[in-house]
Every structure is written in structure tokens, then in C-alpha cells.
Specification:
The protein has about 650 residues and is an alpha+beta fold. The chain has 25 helices and 18 strands.
Length: about 650
């Protein structure tokens, strides 16, 4: 019997009809494995994962392979997006065993959940030097029956290794400011001068490192940084990784030139990339970057928003079982749809009769960086978008994750006030209300995931709390409404109570009220999304500066001490945390605007001031508001304020100095 049909995760429900007797992650699965004296087969993936679908089709839907799995294992299926705590532990095991990781991930464990063997994708038949999945199953079964002591030893060693990696001794001080300079140098040296971006394919956008470079641009004139940022932003927005009709970015490019994407679209990528392009526009007013930011935000609001205000997780790479089918075009299709503008459109988007992807065309800009469309192309773009609506859409993962929504809420709040989009601000407020009302239980404990048919479940992790703090803080700055800041304060206090390591600093992934796993890990490296500790450091520095609650600032400093040595060795592996380190060394600037001065507000919101926190509108408790009135601005550092400012010119001068 398959046990996944009642699960809230769309990914788990995708496997509810498999002939495999899948369990979700729960205690009775391990109890059954112990009773039957068989190992646990743990399979981890997510709904937008192309190779997860491939392995499911090849192996999990095959009755003979399923029979092998059911006879010799207790099989557990996990959605890594719902259970990042489980994913992190076993991904650490797989990378320790194989030197690489990825999804789908398959791990073999004993009855206590200790891993002893694992890997990623295995084909149903031997291929390219890889054993088949049935061969792996048979080898593990034989080893379990004949070499159990060897497996026990391997499980002990692997579990010890995982525990060691999660126990980081703190340094006596945060990383020096030299690390910021080193990070800039490293990124410049690894910049792809031919195609933009960093490193070799598959190429990921690296939004956090780009945002760090833009932060540096706002503080110093550096032609090398500007060249890297400008060329990379132009290259990504010109490539096929960007959806030129509907907006938004795919997760990564399989080639070096950003042409062929892995077509899945993730909420977190689009939240962070929209912010990168927004910041670039706020810094230099380049209309190209505003266009990309606007279209990316509109994509999320149009295609990933629940009517109640939450944002869904992802869209699949596949539609009708074919990767990218929703997005690609034949030249003849374009000629029919675009009419008199066909020749111009075909040239603009690099369309050919032979195509550039499996006989079809991924739309891209042949002339890198030339993004502002002439009227004929823009008219045809709308026509193509309308035509595409009639196609079968990629699968939608309609679960709402607190962490990813916090990222989007922060972006949307800042974008709304920077562009004057009241509709975006209303969408941000709706999202904030949704999170507060739907992503917490009756005791106010935050939860991780929500799904329209099933509601909320899973205790939230430290990353959820940290992202929610940042999103709510920025929503308070955008609206001037006290309640959002008070929500952020309440959430930050709970983060410290539930997750903080009082001995060594930093935050555990799971709360002290969560069911125990084989170890309690800390998420510190910034990978596809910011780590929980990076998110917390930035959010707590900003909220502490805004409210004067020094315990938040002290906890953020303890995060920096915890990872000090790692950041010094690998600064570009901590792209988001570098923002917190910059705040630590250079301080934050508190701006208070009292009375009714929308012109002064616009000065703060329309330009990029990375270290500014803003208070206005409804007052909240804290030293920033004490004894300050009138229609004017106050610019403060460590709550020591300059004389009040009454003109936009003087405010801009003060902030830029």
C-alpha cells in the first residue's frame, strides 16, 4: 500500500500511484524496517526536478523494480523543500561518499536513520559507466544480509562525519573587512568575460554574489566591478534562461552562454534576481534593469500567486512529458503569429528554421544587452504570449513555503516603494497577512509549508523564521505601519528562543521543540538560496538597528564569529552573509522621517542606500522615535542623530556621504 495520497506535498502526491509502497518521513516507517529487519531506502527530490521525474518514470513506475524495493526495503519519499532538515543531513552523507550531490537523491539507512550508502540518479539499466538501479538494490540487499557489520561500521563513520561538520567552533571575532575586498577580487577573477557570470556550465545566476557586488558599487567607484555586474546582468537577461515573453528566470543554464535553460522556474530564484535587477536600476537608473525586475515580479504575481496572497514554490521544466515544450517555437509559428513584424521578431530573438534546441527555438537576444524592445517586437511579444497561454502549462508546485515567501516579500516591498507601484504594495501586504494568519499555529509557532487543499504543516525551520523577519521588516519600512515591525520583533525573539546555539553562536536548522534526527545541523553556506544563518545575520542586524534591540545585533555578530574562518577561506560561498559583514564593519544608517514628507521618503526609496533602515508613519518603541517630531528627516548612526533635515537636497547629500 502506498501511503502518500494524503500528503500535502505535490511532489509526494506525484508518487502516490507508484507501485512502490512509499511512506512519508515518519516514525512508523523506521519501526516497520526494524520489525522486518530490512534497510530503509530514502528517496529525496522536489516537484520541479527534471531528473526526479526521469527516475520516477524509469524505476518507480516499473512493477518489477518496485517489487524489488518493496520486498527488500522500507521506502521513504521526502520532498526536500518541505523537509530541508532531512535533506541536509543525507545530502551531506552522499557528498561525503561520492564527492558530489544532487537530486534525485537515494540513500540507504539502518533502522535508526544512519546512512551507509547513497547516490543521486541511477538509471533503470546500466548506462554511461553507471550501474542500474536494480543492480544497486541487489548489491545493498546482499550486503545487508552478508556484511551487516561492515554496513554498521560505515553508518557509524558517516554519522560521526556529519556530526563533526555540523559542530563548528566559533572564532573570537568576526571576519576582518579585508574579506570584503577579497570577495570582490575573487568574483572579478572568476568572471566569464566572454559570456558573463561566473565559472563553467552548468551556470547559475549567483544572485547573492551579484547583489554583494552592487552593494560595493554603491559605496565605491570601481570600473572592474561595474563591468562584471553590467555584462552579467545583460547576458543573463539576453539569454534563454530569461523568459522573454512571460518574464522570470529559469533555475540555471546548461551551457556557458545562458542560452539553454533547465526550464524549471523557482520562486526563490525570481525573488532574488528581481531584487538584483531592482538594485542595479536604483543605483544607475538603467531602464533595462527596471524592465527585467518588473517583468520578473509580474511573472510571480501572475503565475505563482495564490488568491489568498501566498506565493507558490515552482513551475516544472516539463509539460506533456517534454522538457521545455511550453517555451520553444518553430519559425513557421512565429511567421504566422507575428504577421508584418515576423522578420523583425525572428531577427530580434535569433530564430532559425533549424532551431537551437532539439529542432525548435528558445527565444533569446542575439545582440547581448539590447533589451529595450522596438514597438513591433513588443506588439508581437504580447501576441506570442497570448498564443502560448493555449499550450499545456508546466506542472505547478502550489505549496507555499514560509522561507521563500519571506524572500519574495522583501523584494516586493522594496520594489513597490521604489517604483511607486501601489498594486505591488497591496500584494505585499496581502502576502504579509497571509503568512501571519496561515503559516503559524494556534500558539504562534511558525510552520514551514501550506497547500491549498491541506492547509499548513511541518514546524518551520530557522531559515523560515529569518526570511520572515526580513520580509516583515521591509514591509514595515515600505508601509510605515507599526504592526509589521512588531511582527518582525516577535518572530526574531522566537528565532533566538527556539534555534540559537547559546554556547557557540549561530542558529540550528531545527527548533528545540522538533523531533530529533541523527544530528542537529546548522545551515551556514549560501548555495542556491541564502543559508539560515546568513538570512538571520542580515535580518537581525537590520531589525536591531531599526528598533534599538541590541540582543538582535549581538546574535547577528555571533553568527559572524561562528563562520569567521570559513568566510575568510571561501568568501564567495557566503554571498548573502557578506552583506551582514559589510553592515558589521561599516555600520547601519537609521533614517527617521516624521510628519508628512513624501518627498523625503522618495529620496530614501528611489536610490540604493544598502545600509539604510527606515522608520516613518506609525511610531514603534525604540530610541529612534524618542522626542522627535515635525515634518523632517533625521539621519542617525547608532541612534546618534544629525540635526533634522528639511530639504530633499540635504537628505540626499547626507545619505551619500
Amino acid at each position: 500500500m502506498n501511503h502518500l495520497s494524503e500528503e500535502t506535498s505535490p511532489y509526494l502526491r506525484q508518487h502516490a500511484d507508484n507501485p512502490v509502497e512509499w511512506f512519508p518521513w515518519r516514525e512508523d516507517a523506521f519501526e516497520q524496517a526494524k520489525e522486518r529487519n530490512v534497510p530503509v531506502l530514502l528517496s529525496v527530490g522536489y516537484s520541479a526536478c527534471h531528473w526526479c521525474h526521469v527516475m520516477a518514470h524509469e524505476s518507480f513506475e516499473d512493477p518489477e523494480i518496485a517489487a524489488l524495493m518493496n520486498e527488500n526495503f522500507v521506502n521513504i519519499k521526502v520532498d526536500r523543500e518541505e523537509r530541508p532538515d532531512v535533506d541536509a543531513i543525507y545530502m551531506t552523507a552522499v557528498t561525503s561518499l561520492t564527492g558530489r550531490g544532487g537530486w534525485p537523491m537515494t540513500v540507504f539507512c539502518d533502522h535508526e536513520g544512519r546512512p551507509f550508502h547513497g547516490g543521486t540518479y541511477w538509471p533503470n539499466k546500466p548506462r554511461g559507466g553507471m550501474p542500474s538501479f536494480p543492480q544497486v538494490l541487489e548489491a545493498v540487499t546482499e550486503a545487508w544480509e552478508t556484511k551487516k557489520s561492515d554496513l554498521d561500521q560505515m553508518a557509524t563513520e558517516l554519522t560521526s562525519r556529519i556530526e563533526q561538520l555540523s559542530q563548528i567552533p566559533p572564532d573570537s571575532s568576526p571576519p576582518s573587512s579585508d574579506v570584503l575586498t577579497q570577495a570582490v577580487s575573487n568574483l572579478i577573477s572568476h568572471h566569464d568575460r566572454v559570456h558573463g557570470g561566473f565559472g563553467n556550465p552548468p551556470k547559475f545566476p549567483q544572485a547573492m554574489n551579484l547583489d554583494f557586488l552592487i552593494r560595493r558599487m554603491a559605496k565605491e567607484d570601481n570600473a572592474s566591478i561595474e563591468a562584471v555586474v553590467t555584462f552579467t546582468l545583460a547576458s543573463m537577461a539576453s539569454g534563454g534562461i530569461y523568459d522573454h515573453l512571460g518574464g522570470g528566470f529559469s533555475r540555471y543554464s546548461v551551457d556557458e552562454r545562458w542560452l539553454v535553460p533547465h526550464f524549471e522556474k523557482m520562486l526563490y530564484d525570481n525573488a532574488m534576481l528581481a531584487r538584483v535587477y531592482l538594485h542595479a536600476w536604483k543605483l544607475n537608473s538603467d531602464p533595462r534593469w527596471l524592465q527585467v525586475a518588473e517583468e520578473t515580479i509580474e511573472y510571480v504575481l501572475r503565475d505563482l500567486r495564490d488568491p489568498l496572497g501566498g506565493f507558490y514554490s515552482a513551475e516544472d521544466a516539463d509539460s506533456e512529458g517534454v522538457e521545455g515544450k511550453f517555451y520553444v517555437w518553430d519559425q513557421k509559428e512565429l511567421e504566422e503569429i507575428c504577421g508584418d513584424h515576423a522578420e523583425e521578431v525572428i531577427d530580434w530573438y535569433g530564430v532559425t528554421s533549424e532551431g537551437n534546441f532539439e529542432g525548435s527555438n528558445i527565444l533569446y537576444r542575439r545582440k547581448v544587452g539590447d533589451l529595450l524592445r522596438p514597438s513591433g517586437v513588443e506588439e508581437s511579444r504580447h501576441a506570442l504570449f497570448e498564443k502560448r497561454k493555449g499550450r499545456v502549462r508546466p506542472g505547478l508546485d502550489n505549496k507555499v513555503l514560509t522561507e521563500w515567501n519571506g524572500l519574495m516579500l522583501a523584494t516586493l516591498s522594496e520594489a513597490a516603494v521604489a517604483t511607486g507601484r501601489d498594486d505591488w504594495l497591496e500584494a505585499a501586504k496581502l502576502n504579509g497577512n497571509f503568512l501571519w494568519e496561515n503559516m503559524r499555529d494556534e500558539n504562534g509557532r511558525w510552520l514551514r509549508a501550506w497547500q491549498p487543499e491541506a492547509g499548513s504543516q511541518h514546524l518551520a525551520y530557522s531559515a523560515d523564521y529569518a526570511a520572515a523577519i526580513d520580509g516583515l521588516t521591509r514591509l514595515g519600512e515600505a508601509t510605515g505601519e507599526r504592526r509589521w515591525t512588531e511582527m518582525a520583533i516577535e518572530t526574531a525573539s522566537a528565532l533566538l528562543d527556539l534555534f540559537e546555539d547559546q554556547e557557540n553562536g549561530g542558529f540550528f536548522t531545527t527548533g528545540n521543540d522538533a523531533d530529533p534526527l541523527i544530528t542537529r545541523m546548522k545551515d551556514v553556506f549560501d548555495n542556491a538560496i541564502p543559508s539560515a544563518n546568513s538570512l538571520a545575520a542580515v535580518a537581525l542586524f537590520r531589525l536591531g538597528s531599526l528598533t534599538g534591540q541590541t540582543n538582535f545585533v549581538e546574535s547577528a555578530e555571533r553568527v559572524l564569529k561562528l563562520v569567521s574562518k570559513q568566510v575568510a577561506q571561501h568568501p564567495t560561498g557566503f554571498g548573502h552573509l557578506l552583506g551582514a559583514l559589510d553592515i558589521y564593519h561599516n555600520g547601519s544608517t537609521e533614517v527617521l522621517i516624521t510628519g508628512n514628507r513624501s518627498d523625503l521618503l522618495e529620496v530614501v526609496n528611489s536610490s540604493l542606500f544598502p545600509d539604510v533602515v527606515l522608520a516613518w508613519g506609525e511610531s514603534f518603541s525604540g530610541p529612534l522615535w524618542e522626542n522627535r517630531t515635525g515634518d523632517q528627516a533625521w539621519v542617525c548612526r547608532n541612534f546618534e542623530c544629525e540635526l533634522p533635515i528639511t530639504t530633499t537636497e540635504d537628505l540626499e547629500k547626507s545619505l551619500k556621504s
